[in-house]
Specification:
Length: 103
C-alpha cells in the first residue's frame, strides 16, 4: 500500500524538478506595488499548486458542512430508533406472541 503512494509521489517530484529545470528563464512579475523576478518553472508550479489548494478549499467548504449535518440527523434518527422499543412504536400493530391466536 505504501509503495502505491510513495511511487507516484516520487514520479511527480521528479517531473516537477525536471519541469523547473527546463523552464529556468527568469520572468518579471509585476504586482502593481511590487515587481520581482522569479524562474518561469517556479512561477508556473506555484500557480498550479495555488489553484489546486483553492479548489480543494472551495470543495471542502461547499460539501463538508452538508455532510456533517446529514451525519448528525442520521445519528439522531438511529439513537431515537434504539431508544424506542419495537412494540411501542406508533402506527405499528402489536402482534400476538407466537403460539397464541388473536381474538
Amino acid at each position: 500500500m505504501r509503495l502505491g503512494i510513495i511511487l507516484p509521489v516520487l514520479v511527480f517530484v521528479v517531473l516537477g524538478a525536471l519541469f523547473g529545470a527546463l523552464n529556468a528563464q527568469t520572468i518579471s512579475l509585476d504586482l502593481y506595488f511590487l515587481t520581482f523576478g522569479v524562474p518561469k518553472g517556479a512561477a508556473l508550479l506555484c500557480a498550479v499548486l495555488l489553484g489546486w489548494l483553492l479548489g480543494g478549499i472551495v470543495v471542502w467548504v461547499a460539501r463538508v458542512p452538508r455532510l456533517q449535518r446529514q451525519l448528525r440527523i442520521a445519528q439522531r434518527e438511529l439513537r431515537d430508533a434504539h431508544a424506542t422499543p419495537a412494540d411501542a412504536r406508533p402506527g405499528q400493530a402489536l402482534s400476538a406472541p407466537r403460539g397464541e391466536a388473536r381474538p
